[in-house]
Amino acid sequence: QVQLVESGGGLVQAGGSLRLSCAASLSIFRITRMGWYRQAPGKQRELVAGITSGDNTNYADSVKGRFTISRDNAKNTVYLQMNSLKPEDTAVYYCNCDAAFGTKTYEYWGRGTQVTVSS
Question: What confidence tens digit (pLDDT) does each residue in 23-81 have?
Fold first, then answer.
C-alpha cells in the first residue's frame, strides 16, 4: 500500500514562511510526477505546484515567486517551501503523486495538512 504523509502545516502570520514535507512510502524513482494541491473551505481543490521526475516544475499563478517545490530522492520526499504567505493561502494542503508499476500508472493522495495564515 502506497502512502504519502504530509507534515509541516500550522498557523503562521501573514508574511511568514512554512515548509511542507511529503514522505512517500515507495521509491521516488517510481514516481513520475508529484504535486501539492490545496482546498480552502467552500472552494474546489486546486493545483499549487508540481514537479516531474525530470525536475520540471509548474506553479499556480497565485503562488509564483513565493512557493518553491523540490524533491530529495534519497529521502523519498518532496517539499513545498512557502514564503510571503497570505491569508488567502489558508487551506488544507494535499500531496499527490503518479507512480508507475510496470506499464500501469496509479494516482495517490495524502490525507492533507492544514495551513492557516492569519492577517
Answer: 999 877 788 999 999 999 999 999 999 999 889 999 999 999 999 999 998 888 999 99
Distance separating alpha carbons of residues 98 and 83, to the nearest angstrom: 26
Angle, alpha carbons 82-40-72 (nearest 5°): 35
List Cβ neighbours of 35 (8 Å cut-off, separation of 6 or more): 47, 48, 49, 50, 51, 69, 95, 96, 97
Cell 530529495, residue located: 72
Place of cell 512517500: 24
d(CA 98, CA 28): 10
DSSP, residue by residue, 40-99: -TTS--EEEEEEETT--EEE-GGGTTTEEEEEEGGGTEEEEEE-S--GGG-EEEEEEEEE
